[in-house]
């Protein structure tokens, strides 16, 4: 009998599109990855009641990766969704994943080889993998969670994994106990005014990256960027004074500079920065017997084209 405990998720950063690599990182994650195959049954009249043949028209991987947030390994999912960046000098190393406004703001497209295995008996390997969406969330009393929806190119089912990297034991969890929420009026002043009594959050970016399928290839052989959607859902205790300001803002066009910050020390912290407007509120909702306010915000850019960024400081120097 097989065991869920045998499952492994392995990844390696590719240098070139269409050229897979041996995996070099073991992820602390749960993966769902499958080859999605399009098989065509031609409509042929050949003197038979039964279809006579079929062919494979296209293959692509479909799946997702879910992982508990750690300051070290969250970099991989951020790179899958937002592109690779070069960290600042360290240690510790500051990784800045900018949210783009213009084409020149785009980070380098990040492509990965991902292998999902159950004890080497069953392996699914996908190349040119990237994230179509990335969700970062946290709930009071727990930790941050990262979930990426995957897309990619050539997909195979090999007999064994390409390598067996050792799991890194030196990771630091991103805890909600170390998380604070900051709300200001300008991007230049972000991180000045703290909003108390944060219960949960969900930050999501989608539609920034997509795969392209062209003639002459069985697999998606192109990638592109598009106008993305950035959303943020906050749940606050109603008693928080800032909650009432959000209630008023849904009736106006006010922009807010919002920062969600996880901070252990100067060597391990993460910041989700951005400009947002209030799209929707649910007032006097209930959470564990408490009156709460659920606020849905949409990401925008301000008059100076500030869109925001995800910043991570850790001891990791390269992906």
Number of strands: 19
Low-pLDDT segments, ≥5 res: none
Shape: globular
Total discrete domains: 1
Q: In this structure, how is the largest beta sheet organized?
A: 17 strands, antiparallel
Mean pLDDT value: 92
Q: Could you characterize the architecture of this molecule?
A:
The chain is 6% helix and 50% strand. It has a 17-stranded antiparallel β-sheet that branches. It is built from two helices and 19 strands. It has one domain. It is mainly beta and 319 residues long.
Key words describing this protein structure:
globular, 17-stranded antiparallel beta sheet, two-stranded antiparallel sheet, single chain, mainly beta, 319 residues, 2 helices
What is the topology?
Layout: E1 7-13, E2 25-27, E3 30-40, E4 55-68, H1 74-82, E5 93-98, E6 112-118, E7 123-139, E8 144-151, E9 155-156, E10 179-184, E11 194-195, E12 198-206, E13 209-212, E14 222-225, E15 229-237, H2 241-249, E16 255-265, E17 268-287, E18 290-300, E19 308-314
Antiparallel strand pairs: 1-2, 1-6, 3-4, 4-8, 5-19, 6-7, 7-8, 7-9, 7-12, 10-11, 10-16, 12-15, 13-14, 15-18, 16-17, 17-18, 17-19
What's a quick, concise take on this entry?
Helix content is 6%, strand content 50%. With 319 residues, it is mainly beta.
